[in-house]
Design a protein that fits this description.
By secondary structure, this protein is α/β, with parallel strands linked by helices. The protein has 17 helices and five strands. It folds into three domains: about 100 residues, Serine Threonine Protein Phosphatase 5, Tetratricopeptide repeat; about 110 residues, Orthogonal Bundle (DNA Cyclobutane Dipyrimidine Photolyase, subunit A, domain 3); about 100 residues, 3-Layer(aba) Sandwich (Rossmann fold), CATH 3.40.50. About 50% of the residues lie in helices and about 5% in strands. Strand 2, helix 13 and strand 3 form a beta-alpha-beta unit. Helix 1 runs parallel beside helix 4. The longest helix is centred in the N-terminal third of the chain and has 23 residues. The protein binds flavin-adenine dinucleotide (FAD). The site of flavin-adenine dinucleotide has 28 residues, from helix 3, helix 5, helix 9 and helix 11.
C-alpha cells in the first residue's frame, strides 16, 4: 500500500478504480484480501478526507462510466462520509465529550496491560496483531477490518472505544473526526443505542479468504451503555460576506482549492494552515503529519503554477492577525477547536455547497438520509 501525497496520485487512483474495481464493488467490497490486493475498493479516503478529490468529482466520474444502478452502492458509501460529517455538525458536543472522555481515560489506562499489549500488537489474537502492524505500516485499514478491529478492541479486549478511536486517528492517513468517532460509536452500540457490531470468527474467516484461523472472540457481548442524549444545534451554515481581495485560510480538509466552490473569487492571499502536533488533543504519528504537510506542499506548487499568491502558515500564526479573515470551514474537529479555544472572532466561514445542502438531511439515521441521495445527485452531479 502506498499513498503518494499528491493530487495527481488521487486522480490516477480514482481512474484505476473506475476501470478495474467499480463494476464489482457491491459484490466484493467487503472482502479484505490483504494489503497487497486492494483492487476491490477505491482506497481514496486519504485524499477525500483532505479535500484533494471531492465526493462530487468521484460520483460524476463513476456515473460517466456506469449507470446509477451499478454505481448505487459505491455512491452510498461515498455519501455515507458526508452523512457522518453532517450528523456531527448538528451535534458538535459528541466530539467535545469524546475529547473530554479520552483525556480522562488516557490517565486511567496509561499502564493497563491489555491496552499496552493491544497497541503493540502483542495480543493472542493473530488477526488483530496483523491489523495493528498494517495500520502502523500502511496508515490504512480496510473498512471491514476497521469494524472487526473496533469490535475486538471493545468486546474481547475490554478496552474503551475512545482509546481505540484515538489510536486510529493517530495512524490513519484518512483520520477524520466524524467518520472515525461515529464509526467507533456505531461499533460500540452507542451511536444506534443498544445496537453493537459483533465481530465473529466465521465472518472474519470468510471475508479475509481464510487468512486467519482459530479466532477466539467474545461473540455475545452486550452493547456499551451511554445515556447521554445530544440535541440538534441549528447552525444554519450560512456563508460570510464575500468581497474581493480578502485573505483566505484553507485548513487540511479542503486542500484542492482549484475545484472549490470559491475558485473564481479573487483573494489577496491564500494561506494553507498547517496544524502540527503542538495544538492537537490527539497526537498524530509523524508519517501522518508528513503526509498532510506534503499534500499542502503539492497544492502550493499547483496554485503557484497558476500565479495565485499562496503559502503555508502554522496554525499559531492565525492568532497574530487582527484583520478579518475568511476560511473554508474546517468542520468539527481539532482545527475548529483551535479557532474556538483561541477565541478568534475575526475568522468567518465559507461552506461547501454540498455540505450546506446535505447536512439538513443528517438529523435522523442513514436510512433516512439515503432517500435524499437522488436529490443530492440531481442538484450537484447532473
Ligand atoms: C471504526 C471505524 C473507523 C473509521 N474511521 C474512518 C476515518 O477516520 N476516516 C475515514 O475516511 N473513514 C473512516 N471509516 C470509514 C471507512 O472504513 C473508510 O472510509 C474506508 O475504509 C476507506 O477506504 P476506501 O477509500 O477504499 O473505501 P471505499 O469502499 O472505496 O469507499 C469509497 C469512499 O466512501 C467513503 N466510505 C466508505 N465506507 C464508509 C464508512 N463506513 N463510513 C464513512 N465513509 C465511508 C469513504 O470516503 C471512502 O473513501 C471508519 C470506519 C470504521 C468502522
Amino acid at each position: 500500500m502506498h499513498f503518494e501525497p499528491s493530487r495527481e496520485a488521487a486522480v490516477s487512483k480514482l481512474n484505476y478504480f473506475i476501470n478495474n474495481g467499480l463494476n464489482n464493488y457491491s459484490k466484493l467490497r467487503n472482502f479484505d484480501f490483504g494489503s497487497e490486493d486492494r483492487s476491490n475498493i477505491s482506497c481514496l479516503s486519504p485524499y477525500i478526507t483532505h479535500g484533494i478529490i471531492s465526493e462530487i468529482e468521484i460520483i460524476k466520474k463513476s456515473l460517466n462510466k456506469y449507470s446509477f444502478l451499478i454505481n448505487e452502492k459505491f455512491i452510498q458509501e461515498v455519501l455515507w462520509r458526508e452523512y457522518w460529517k453532517g450528523w456531527l455538525e448538528l451535534r458538535p458536543k459528541v466530539w467535545s465529550d469524546f475529547i473530554i472522555d479520552l483525556n480522562n481515560l488516557k490517565q486511567e489506562y496509561n499502564e493497563n496491560k491489555n491496552y499496552i499489549e493491544a497497541i503493540e500488537g502483542k495480543t493472542n489474537i493473530e488477526c488483530f496483531n496483523t491489523w495493528i502492524n498494517e495500520l502502523k505500516n500502511d496508515n490504512y485499514l480496510h473498512n471491514h477490518a476497521r469494524m472487526w478491529f473496533a469490535s475486538i478492541w471493545i468486546f474481547t479486549l475490554g478496552l474503551p472505544w475512545q482509546l481505540g478511536a484515538e489510536f486510529f486517528m493517530k495512524y490513519l492517513f484518512d483520520g477524520d473526526s466524524a467518520s472515525n468517532t461515529l464509526g467507533w460509536r456505531w461499533v460500540a452500540g452507542v451511536q444506534t443505542k443498544g445496537k453493537n457490531y459483533v465481530a465473529s470468527e466465521w465472518n472474519i474467516k470468510k471475508f479475509t479468504n481464510n487468512r486467519f484461523k482459530n479466532i477466539k472472540l467474545n461473540e455475545n457481548p452486550i452493547p456499551v451503555r451511554d445515556d447521554r442524549n445530544y440535541s440538534i444545534i441549528n447552525n444554519g451554515f450560512v456563508n460570510a460576506n464575500l468581497t474581493n481581495n480578502q485573505d483566505l485560510l484553507i485548513f487540511e480538509n479542503n486542500l484542492f482549492f482549484e475545484e472549490s466552490d470559491f475558485k473564481d473569487q479573487s483573494f489577496k492571499n491564500i494561506y494553507f494552515v498547517f496544524n502540527g502536533n503542538e495544538t492537537r488533543q490527539i497526537k498524530l504519528d509523524e508519517k501522518v503529519i508528513n503526509f498532510k504537510k506534503s499534500l499542502i506542499d503539492n497544492q502550493i506548487i499547483n496554485l503557484k503554477s497558476k500565479s495565485l499568491k499562496c503559502k503555508m502558515i502554522n496554525i499559531h500564526d492565525i492568532k497574530n492577525t487582527k484583520e478579518s479573515l475568511l476560511a473554508l470551514y474546517p468542520s468539527v474537529g481539532e482545527n475548529l477547536d483551535y479557532i474556538n479555544s483561541s477565541n478568534l472572532k475575526n475568522i468567518s466561514f465559507l461552506y461547501r455547497k454540498i455540505d450546506q445542502y446535505s447536512w439538513k438531511y443528517c438529523n435522523k439515521g442513514f436510512f433516512n438520509f439515503k432517500n435524499y441521495i437522488p436529490k443530492i445527485i440531481k442538484e450537484f452531479v447532473n
